[in-house]
Structure formats: C-alpha cells, structure tokens
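User: Show me a protein chain along with its predicted structure.
Assistant: Here is one chain, sequence first, then structure tokens.
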Amino acid sequence: MSRRPRAPPPLRASKQTKSKRRTSTVTAMRILLLGILLLCCSFSLTESAITKQRSRKKPSKDQQHRDLNVCDFEQTDSPLFCYCNDNKLDSAEDANCLIFKKLELSDPIWAHFNSQLYIHKLSFIVRSEGEISYIPTAVLRQLKHLNTVSFQHAKLEAIESQSFGTLPSLSTIILNKNNIQWLKWHAFENLRNLTLLNLDENDISELSRDIFYELPKIQKLFLNHNNVSVLHDRAFEHLPTLEELELNNNKISVVTADSFKRLRMLQRLDLRNNLIAMLGDRCFAEMPDLKELHLDQNQIKFISSKALDGLRHLKMLRLSENKLVTLEPDFLVGTPSLTLLDLRDNQISTMTFDNIKPIITNLYNNSSYFYLDGNKLICDCKLAWIWGLRNETRNSKLREGLEELTCFLEASYESRFDTGEDLNRALEIVRNTGSRHGDYHARQNSMDETYMGDNDGYEDYSAGEDYSVGAQVVVEGKPSYVKHLFDLKPELLPCPQPTHEDVMASEQPSSRHSSSIFSFATGGGAGQIEACAALTTILLAVSVRACLT
C-alpha cells in the first residue's frame, strides 16, 4: 500500500496573498482619493468661474451706488439734481443740489452720495415744488472732508440733537430761510472746527441753555430776522471763543449780564430793531473785549449810569431811533475808548457837557464820529459846550454835522438874538456855510412878524414831525422857533433855573491849549449867566480872529 504525499504547508502562501490584497486596497484608495481631489478642484474652479462671470454681469450694491454718480445722474424723475465742479467719481469738491420734489429720507438717491466722498462744500436749495423736512445726518457723516454745508427754503421746523454729527472738518453751517422754529438740546454739539453758524430768517422764538455745546472754535453766530422773544440766562455760555453775535430784528425786550455770560472774547454785538426798553447796571460787563455795540431801533427810554461799565475797549455805540429823553451824567464813564457815538432820532431835550466829558478828547480826532441830529434839543446854555467841540475837533465831517444841529428856542427869548450885522457876518464866516441859510435878518424879521404872543400859528411838536428851520412850534406848552444852533449867539443862550450840574464849570480839555476853554463861577444864577456870556464871548472872538487870519 502506497503513502499519500504530504500537502505543502499553507502558511507562506496565505501571507503572500494577504500582502497582495493589502497593496491592491491601498492603491485603490489612493486612486479614489486622487479622483475625489480632482473632482473638488474641478468644482472649485467651476464655481470661481461662475462667480467671476456673475460679478461681471451684476455689480455689488455698493458698486451700483458708486456707479450711479450723484454728480452725473440722468434720471429725469429724480427729486434731486446736483451740479458739481467735477463730475468724475470721487473728484467733486463743490456740489450745489436742487430739490424739485418731496425728498424722503428713505429715497435711494441719498446712497449715491457715496460716489463723491471728497466733497468740501455742499448746498441744498429747495425749489417751489420741492420739500425736505430733515437734516440727512447719515449722509453728512460719511463726507469726512465736508467743510461747508447749507440748506435754504427747507421746512426743517426743528433742529434735532446732534443733527450734524461730529464731522471733524465742518467749519461753516448756513441754515437761513428754513422755517426753523425750535433748536433742540445740543442741536449743535461737538463740532470741533465750526467757526460760523448762520440761522438768519427763521422763526426761532426761544434760545435756551445747552443748544450750542462743545464748539471750541466758533467765532460768528447769526440769528437775525427771527422771532426771538425769550433769551435765557447763559444761553451762550459754551461759546467762549465767539467774536460776533447778531440778534437784530427779533423781539428781545430784556437783556442782563447773564444773557451774555462768558462771552469774554466777543467784539461785536448787534441788537438792532428789538424791543429793549432799558439798560440796567453792568448789563454788558461779561464782554470786556466788546468794540461795537448796536442798539439802534429799540424802545430804550432809560440807560443806567453804570449800564456800560466794563466796556473799556468799546469803540462804537449806536443808540439811534430809540426813545431817550434824558441821559445820566456819567453814562459814558465806562467807555473811555469810544470814538463813535450815534444818538440820532431820539427825543433828547438836552445833552450836557457832563454827558460827553468822558470821551470829549476822543472826538477831537479825525476818525471820530458824533451824531445828535433828529432830537428835541432846547436852545439853552447846556448846549454851549458844542461850540467848543466844533472849534477843537480836527474832523471836518463831525464839524459839519454839528453845524447842522437844530434846537427849539422859546419865543420869549427870541428878541435876545436880534443883533448887529457885523457879529452875524462873523458868525457866518466861522460857520463857513455860505448861502445855505439864506438871509438871516430876513428870516428873523419874518418870524418876528408872525409871532402873535399866543399859540396861534404854532404847530404842536408832539406829532414827532421833522420841522424846518424857522418853523413855529409848541414845545412843552411853550411857543418856540426851530433854530440852527450856530445861528444863535452862545453868550445869549438862556439858562433857566441853573443848577450846579447844568453849569459849564466842567473843564473841557483842549487839544491846543493847556488852559480850560470853559470855566465858570459857581455863584447864583445871574452870576452864572453873566460868566457864561462873558467867557463865551471871548471864545467867539478867538474863533472869529482865527478864521479871519
């Protein structure tokens, strides 16, 4: 019986088979991963190509807004159209925009300002069919280079808090003629470079505290032609750098020192055409640098003797067209630098030397101005100092203005001035007015013939009309004549009920002489009149001699 052959051991064969299978699996996995990787790359490239293609076909929203240039906008139905100095993208510096229709804050046209981010000067003018009732704060904030912005003929009604944001470069805001009624708390705040704010010709009725806040460079504030009747204390206290403040043509009736608190650098204050009735003590003392004070066309009847205290740098004081009747003797003591004083068209009956003494030497200069015409001056010795000023001043225009002054001479004193021909001729030479007044004697004789000794033929001056020289009027119940002051002889001017204040014992400094021009005794009334007459005659003689030589 034969033996079966042994089978070879299977161990080595099994190991080889497993190794081959493992190698095949790894290779397959590598191929699979490579395929997946290639597929992903293909998808990525395809998506990128599609994205690029889409971007070419449809720009982004921001790009759309930039492509729609606000300076080159062609849609005819747009509510806004801007004229720019350069229509290229991001090239305009000056844009003037007209609003033709009602413009809502949500209108997409506002987004197109993103196409011109370098605008320096931007203005909006609302045409008759247009309307805008807000400040587009978000639009302005993105214009980082904006220097000047203006709105005109809008219906803003109110300026809300921080309406202009905190634009770092904004220096000028012009908001005139926009129907503004209210300025809200901090309406103008934190505008670090703002120098000028114009709010003229609106309907603002009240100025409270903290409207103007953190404006460290503001220099000019204009609020003319509004309806301001309430001016709160400290309304401007956050504007210490302000140099010009204009509040003319409003309804302000009361001003105090607190009205202008902390305006230490203010140089010009315009309060013309308001309803101010009086000026109390030191009401402008918070403005020590003030140089110009305009108070024309108010209702001022009284000025305290200390009202102008602290205004040592004041050069110009305008008080024309008020209701002043008398002036406190020392009301100008606080204004030693004053060179222009305008008191025209009041109801002043007299102005004594004590009134003018603090500034008299200033009026000798060529650059000085003094206006007193259009008042109700009474022809008496209280005005005799005007002859001295006329002779001392080097300002020909001031001299001519003084020579045109008229006054009311009580009819009972008229006969005093019927004098000889020689002296009248000398007076005419001093005046150097030629034939301006006509024949002096003929006028005097005509008035003498007309005067009947009672009120017949005299007009009542209370009507406030402007009477010509020679007119016969009733002043304070007394028949009077209208005279040119310099047609009268100063030594014969009446001095009714003289007092120590009225007497011209006050020394008027001379620009040419060390001695006083006027120096009078302080005795009884008759002695004062005689001294006045004697010394004024000397003055007249000196003046005539100077002119004749």
